[in-house]
Design brief:
Radius of gyration: 16 Å
Helix content: over 70%
Strand content: under 5%
Order of helices and strands: HHH
Structural class: mainly alpha
Largest sheet: none
Shape: flat
Length: 101
């Protein structure tokens, strides 16, 4: 898909889809709606990584590429950990929906 559509544009579209899906998740009234919204967010997130890695490969010199990709992986792991830690404090204030905003 990134060969057909400009990768920067594709990344933007995936970010919009992921954001909308997360907002829909926070507003879900049924389990089915919740599941569909999470599937949409998963598709968007699954599309991000290949596009980001290909953009990284284009913009980072070959001698620094492995370090940049490792740093991207580390930061992604930290982001997940920090998000989970923040959810512990945010969820009691705003309910389970606040974790998806």
């Amino acid at each position: 898909l990134a060969d057909i559509i400009d990768r920067k544009w594709l990344l933007f579209v995936l970010a919009i889809i992921g954001g909308v899906a997360s907002i829909c998740t926070s507003r879900a009234l049924t389990f089915e709606m919740f599941t569909l919204c999470r599937i949409g967010a998963a598709i968007a997130l699954g599309g991000h990584l290949p596009v980001i890695l290909s953009l990284l490969a284009d913009f980072v010199p070959l001698t620094e590429r492995a370090e940049a990709m490792a740093l991207l992986s580390i930061i992604g792991g930290w982001g997940g950990s920090i998000g989970n830690a923040l959810a512990v404090f945010v969820t009691p204030l705003g309910g389970w929906q606040s974790a998806y905003l």
